[in-house]
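Q: I'm teaching a short session on how sequence maps to structure, and I want students to see two examples side by side rather than one. Could you give me a first protein with its sequence written out and its structure tokens following it? Keep the formatting plain so it prints cleanly on a handout.
A: Of course. Example one:
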Amino acid sequence: MNEALEMNRYIGCNQAAMNAAAAIIAFVLLASCANTSDSKLSSGAPASSEEIIAGLQIVDCLLPGQLRKLGNMTYLSPRRPIKTTAADCNVRGGEYVAYDRADYKTALKIWLPTAEQGDAEAQLAVGEIFEKGLGAEPNYEAAVLWYQKAAAQGNKSAQFNLGTMYEQGLGVAQNKLQALNLYREAWGMPADSVIFQDAARSEQQALRKALEAQLSAKNDQLALMERQLASLKKKTASKQPSDSAPVTELATLTQIVASLQNDRASVEKQLSTIPRLRTPAASLNATPAQAATAAEIKVADMDFGRYYALIIGNRNYTQLEHLETPLNDAREVGEILEKQYGFQVQLLLDSDRLTVMKAINELHSVLGENDNLLIYYAGHGSMINVGERDTGYWLPINADPPPNDASWVSNDFVSNHLGRIQAKRVLVIADSCYGGLLSSAPGHLFFGQTTGAGSSDYIKYKLPRRSRLLLSSGGDKPVIDEGGRGHSVFAQELIDTLRSNVGVLSAPDLYASIRGPVKARAAVNQFVQEPVYKSIKGAGHEVGDFFFVPKALSQ
């Protein structure tokens, strides 16, 4: 009996998935719109659910050239690559490779010619192809090269992606200061801004401390080697010319000393390149004001736009064990977002694969350029290891047990669509096993180094920038299903924080508020769990943020 109860405590970790070491992720999405998916084939015959699903996949599409006229001359413009759904590509007469057969070579055929002509968006796409690998091992050096080309033209997504490469040391030597500066450029922030200087100062102090420790160690090693070298030179001078052993030892020691001198010079050079920053004055807190309308939330002179949420809760599975709390979690989160924060909420409870995928696809026709989208998922999750990469999945209620992933919803499907929609700010909240696998990006360098996430300066810098953010209940590990008064441990803290908030709440502040309590609640239940907050790489993130604004501030 106790063993059965223990198994039911894990959300997004069905028993078969746990035994097979598989797992998925989870989130939340908005929507309230008409169905835009084609329900018939071009022949007029009704399409099967699998054919509809295939049409919803994001593909690399090469559109045909356009017939243009200049004076009396007509000409055909070059073919143009875009990312769109397979169905849309088909309707527009484009060429693409079936999603499940695409690899880096076929994807490069679509994007590389345009990238070589200098198109920044195509260069970004080529960089992402090399970084992901697409059926082959990732080529990080090539990815960096193409990101640099696009970043040099001011492409914000390329600047951000290049920053993540420097932060993790992929394809380049790890350099967190360089990463931070690239994030700043993607953000559109001046080098002397309050927020950047605060974050850079913290990173600089850590880097300077590490380099100074290296320099001290090099000096100690060099002093020791130089003493040994001087002693050996004296001994060598007294030996017979025919005795080659001391001469060989002297040559070796001389090389070691030269190498240490070069190492020391390299560390000194790195120290000399760390810029000195001015100390800025503290920023002021935002002053709430009334919004002009209920549809568009405004605080003072800041327009936050409209808010939508797609809430997905899966509890009653047809072939997997049931969970306890996802439906309660989804309903209460949706109610708080709608009543307290003015979200337009679409609630999907116990949904199958096709329903979830269609809802995500339809977001493209709903959201405008200044809109906000919150995606919340609670349910089973699983993962599959593909080469060096772990791929996460949501498990809809019609999911087969692992490892049969034919009816699962992949992270790639979700992130590809998030890159396609127009919404300025997107936050995915995933409460399932392996939810953190939705993004391969590192954690935010800015987070934890700025103290004014609710300040007017912070909000004004962040608000115009696109954001694609992930708040996961437990990273790439299993998470607990209960322990929160009828909710999961994570959902209970999320609900309490959102309900008690009375000001403009940023995503970093939300994460900071729930991270410690979730760890503590899980520990009470003899479980280790820690939420994760990071950007969703490859979905068009520009170092923006997501803000929760209570309706009371806009009345």
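Q: Perfect. Now a second example for contrast.
A: Example two:
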Amino acid sequence: MLLSAEHIWKYFEADIPTLEDISFSIEKGDRIGLVGVNGCGKTTLLNIITDRIGFDPTPGGDGAVNVARDCTVGYLEQNSGMGGENTVDFEMHRPFSALLDEYRRIEELSEKMPLLSGDDLENAAAEYAKLSAHFEANDGYLIDVKINTVLGGMGFAGIDRQRKISSLSGGERTRMALCKLLLESPDLLILDEPTNHLDLESTMWLEGYLSDYKGAVLVVSHNRYFLDKLCTRIFELEDRRLNIYKGNYTAYLRLKKAENERREKLYEQQQQKIRELQFYIDKNRVSATSAKQAKNKQHMLDRIVEEGVEKPKKPKRPPKIRLEYDIVPPKEVLSVNGVDISVGEGDARRTLIGSLSLEIRRGEKVGIIGPNGVGKSSILKTIQNINPHESGTVRWAQNVKIAYFDQKNEELDPRNTVIEEVHRRYPRMNDAEIRTLLGGVLLTGENVFKPVGVISGGEKTKLSFAIMMLRRGNVLILDEPTNHLDSATCEVLEDALVEFDGTMILVSHDRYLLNKVVTRIIEVTPNGVKSYEGNFDSYIAAKELEAETAPKPAEAVKKEPKKQYRTREQRAADAKRKQEHRDAEERIDALEAEIKEIEAALADPAVGGDYQKVAELCERLEEAKREVEEMMEVWLRGE
């Protein structure tokens, strides 16, 4: 067991606990998702188990958080970024500082041992052997490979390693902090919303990396597909208490639903039993012959009331989203032909996608995916003529009515109140009608009189969907619609989009949404645009098939269309170069085998007593290493 929490309570207000009697344990290899509505105490719980804040005394005084001896814990707080003036390269090597110090000592001993004798040489040889074994056992020779792998997976493959951390954007600093934490490889990795600043490709890479992670992972995330792929247990915080479910997120939903139904059934059975007992007691309490039995029934009733099933709490009312339209458009809804997708103006204008062409048919639900910055949102704005284009054509069919959701909510006026924002678009609606509409998406009470600029991101999203419902568009254009929504509202929105039988063009990183709603995936990359039929899982299957059937490098060489004529001297030089390449490869293999034999000999106590032998071995070791470097240059020239 890596960590256990027992009977944890936390109060921020005098009488109402935020966390009530929380107990759980985390074992090596666990993949745990911590879920719950916003404000339920998830981050508070993480701060308690990482000792950032304390917990409150329990009624029994037996609360505790226990971390196993030698267990290292790494914690990435939500939206926490790396800072400072150090370079990227320096920060990525910091997790390996102890190993790098070892390597410097190994090199120092290697240069020093040929000059030593007697006990000094024996001690140096023993230290050299010990450090070399430890360095190799802890993958010291793979440090740069690990750094390259993590930086590449997190979208930093081409970054200038000498760039200062302070010059990165907020999102980049958060991703860089995650890179460093992954390289530290703590026994227990705790991540609070790690996918917030990741594009689709980086999120998928992180899933795979964490699935193979040697330690345990505890993650808070609203990314349901991520939780499905990664987690083997779900911790749910609800009404101040922790409920634990086996399986991934989908299994948790199924188990929770079944449990709620079972509790409802048990409660109804219990209530029926209470009514029967109460009826018997009332009828026989004064009867001389049945009074004793009535008294026994009263004891039974008291026990049921005291120890029986609590009345299940009604789930919070979900928002109501229903998207409808009045006019059916023609079969061919949209035709885009040779359009440049560009951003900026004047000399600063740059093209993200050249000559985009695509067709959208009535009833299609198209998901557009791709890395950050590739131009997905710009596609949505260009096809609506919000962004201008200098080449190609965009043709919408007649009777098309667009309802647009912008992820930045730029179409909302931050100075208006929520109710005014609806009223300025639909002035014929009275306040009662508008408040009924807003109440349906859970914008109620004084919230409707707040300026749009001060309400939360989730509330702005709900306001935008209330306006979209009034718009009654037969084509929905949606840019990251689930970014600020809790899981319950996401599910309501997904159901509404599934039921919508019009046309939809959707940009999203939410793979759960892409899997449930879309019927075609359009992948946008710096190399172009490609279409795949089906949902997200179908897209992944198609990509895997492409990778399996792609020509191997050797096959590509065989398919060279033409052979160029070469002179006899050129052919002779080429043959000589290839022979040198083969000879160098064989020599490198032999030298590496010899180096291993020498290092094993230096680690042998019997050899350590022969000072002259140790000196000879150290000298030969250095010669062999130098020769490997020389042969590597020959080998590279011969490729």
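Q: What should students look for in example two?
A: Point them to this: The radius of gyration is 33 Å. Also worth mentioning: The longest helix spans residues 249-284.
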